[in-house]
Amino acid sequence: MEYYAFIHFSINTYTDMAWGFGNEDPVLFNPTKLDCRQWARICKEAGMKGIIFTAKHHSGFCLWPSKYTDYSVKNAPWKNGKGDVVREMADACKEYGLKFGVYLSPWDRNHPDYGKPEYITYFRNQLKELLTNYGDVFEVWFDGANGGSGYYGGANETRKIDAKTYYDWPNTYQLVRELQPKIVIWNDGGDRADLRWVGTEAGYVGETNWSLLNKTGDVPEQMLRHGLENGDTWVPGEVNTSIRPEWFYHEREDRKVKTLPQLMDTYYNSIGRNGTLLLNFPVMPNGLIHPKDEQAALSFAKAIKEAFAVNLARNTRTSASQIRGGKPEFGSMKAIDADKESYWATDDTTRKASLTLHFNAPTSFNRFLVQEPIWLGQRVRAFSVEALMDDNWKEIAKETTIGYKRILRFPMVKATQVRLTILDAKSNPLISNLEIYKTPIILTPPTITRDKSGDIRITPGDTESELYYTLNEAMPGPHSGKYTTPVKTSDGKVNVKAIAYNPYTKQSSIVSEEKFDVSRKDWKIISTDKQQAYQVLDGNPSTSWHQNKSQGMPADLIIDLGKLEKLVGFRYLPDQNWWADASIITHYQFEVSMDNKIWEMVNEGEFSNIKNNPFWQTKSFKPIQARYIKLRALKNTQEGSASGYAEIDIITP
Ligand code: FUL
C-alpha cells in the first residue's frame, strides 16, 4: 500500500498532553466541528490508501461507545453522548475509497483491572467490538508503549507487566484473524506479527532493509532498522512518523509542521527504502486537521507527482548479461514494461548479472527506481548503478538491498546508457521494474540556532545556496540581510526568519523560523565543574552532555541565570543520538531559587513518549521570579544510572 495515514485524536487532545494519564474527565471531549470526512478527504487528496485511527490511546478513553466501559464518548457532551467517532471515521473511509484501520492501545491507564488477567478479557472484548462492527479493517496497531504509572480506576500507581506474556498474544492474534482474515497486525511489544516497527519515529528505515525477521527471539534496535537477511518470517518495516513533532495536536507546534524538503526526505527514506510510510495527522480540539498540515500533505503529494511524472526508462532499448533459458518471457524488457507482474530473470545458479538501458540520446536524470517481484522473495544483497558518459562508465551508486521498492537519489548525470548490476543475491536475481527520473530540485530551508553568547547561526542544507534572514518578523528574500557570519543580537528575545536562495535558478527555499528566549550568555552551570556540561547551553542540538549518578539517586542540573528573571516555563531537549541508546529523562522536577539555598518546586511530571520521540519538551508554570534553576531527573530511560541533555532553556513571558 506504500502510503497511508495515522490519525491521533483522544481525550489528551484537550489537555495538551502526549499521553493521557487516564483520569481526564470525559466532559472535556467536546469537538465543535468534528468532521471525519475532512480527514478522509485530505488523506485521499494526499494520495494515501488508508487511515489508521486511534480508537483508544494509552489514556483508555474510547472514541466509540464501548459496551464494556463508561470511559468513552458515551459520557462526553459531544452529540449528547450519542456519538461514535470510530463509526464516522469508518464511514468516511468508505465514502472516500480508503481502507480503514484501528489503533487499540494495549496499555490502558484508566482501567482498574490493568495488570490483572481480567483486563485481557476486557481488551479482547473491545477488539471484538472494533473488528466486528465497523466493516473491513486492514490493519490493527498494538502499541508497545507502557510507562507504568496511571490512574487505574483511582489507584494512581505504577503497574508493571511483562509485555511478552501478559497479553497472551498468540490467542489475541487468533481472535483478530478469525474476525478479520485479511488484516495485518502491527505489534512492537509482543510476539512477531505481520509488520515491524523500524525502531524510530523520526521517519526513516535503514538503507539495508530486509523484510525478514525470525519468528521468535529478541529483536535488537539494529535489527528493527535493517531486518534480518536470513530471517524465517516476512515482517516488512512500516515507517511511522508524524507530520508535526508530536503525535497529538499542540498549538505550539503550528510552526513546526514538517516542511516539503523534510517530507521528501521521509519519502525517500521510507518508501524509497523498501518500507511503507504511515504519516500521522494530529486532530485539533475542534475536531479538524489544521490547514497547515493539510497544505503540507497536499504539497508533498504534488511534489511526488511532479518528481515521478515522466519515466525516462520507458521506451528505451534494453539488454542483459543473461536471460533465464534465453526465453523472451524473462527478457530484460520485462523490467521496463507497464506490467508490474512480469520480470527479468536469470538462470537458477546465477548470482551476478546486469541489465542495461540504452537511451536514444544523451539523457539527464537524478533518480533511479528499482523493484524486485517480492512474491518470489527478497533476493538482492548488493547492486550498483553505472552511467555511460562520454564513452566512460561511471559508478553513480553502490547499494545493498532492493526489496519491494528502492529509490536512489544522486546529483544530476547526463548519460547515453544506464547499467544495473546485481553484485550478489540470495538466489538468482529477478527485477520486475526499473524507472528513471529527472526530478526538480527542492531547496532545503536553513537551520537556525542561537549559541550561548546569544549569536544567531544559520546553516544551509546544501553548498550552492545563499542565505538571507530577518530579525523583525518580515519575510526574508534576496533583498534582506545576507548571512555570512554569526549575527550579534541584544540579550533579549529574538525572532529569526531565514531562507536559502539559489542565485542561478533564482529559486528560494521555504522560510525557516525560530523564536529564541533571552540569551544564555551569563548563565553558569553550578552543579558540576565539567566544562562539557556547557554543551547543554551551546544551542547545538547535536552535542550533548551526560551525567552519571548512582542507582536510584536523582540527578540535578543547577544553573545560575546571572540575574533575576521572570520565568513561566522551561524547555528540555534530550540527547538526539537515537541509535546510541542515550539516556533520556522521563520524569522530572523543576525547582527555582533566589539564592541557591531555598528552593521552590514549581513543576513536576513526565516527558511522555520522549524515548520514541526525542523532541523539545516544553513545560509551563505560574510566573515566578528566580535567579537559579534546577532540573532534577527522577527517572531515565536507562533506569537510574545517567541523564542525558542536548539543551536546556527557560521561557519568559
Ligand atoms: C507511540 C505512542 O506512545 C505514541 O503516543 C504514539 O501513539 C505512537 C504512534 O506510538 O509508541
Automatic annotation (TrEMBL):
Belongs to the glycosyl hydrolase 29 family. GO terms for molecular function: alpha-L-fucosidase activity. GO terms for biological process: fucose metabolic process; glycoside catabolic process. It comes from the Bacteria. One of its GO terms (cellular component) is lysosome. Transmembrane segments: none annotated. InterPro entries: FA58C, Fn3_assoc_repeat, Galactose-bd-like_sf, GH, Glyco_hydro_29, Glyco_hydro_29_N. It holds the Pfam family F5_F8_type_C. Its EC number is 3.2.1.51. Gene3D superfamilies: Galactose-binding domain-like (2.60.120.260), Glycosidases (3.20.20.80). It comes from Emticicia agri. It is an enzyme of class 3 (hydrolase). Keywords: Glycosidase, Hydrolase, Signal. SMART domains: Alpha_L_fucos (SM00812). Residues 301-439, 498-653 form the F5/8 type C domain. SUPFAM superfamilies: (Trans)glycosidases (SSF51445), Galactose-binding domain-like (SSF49785). This is alpha-L-fucosidase.
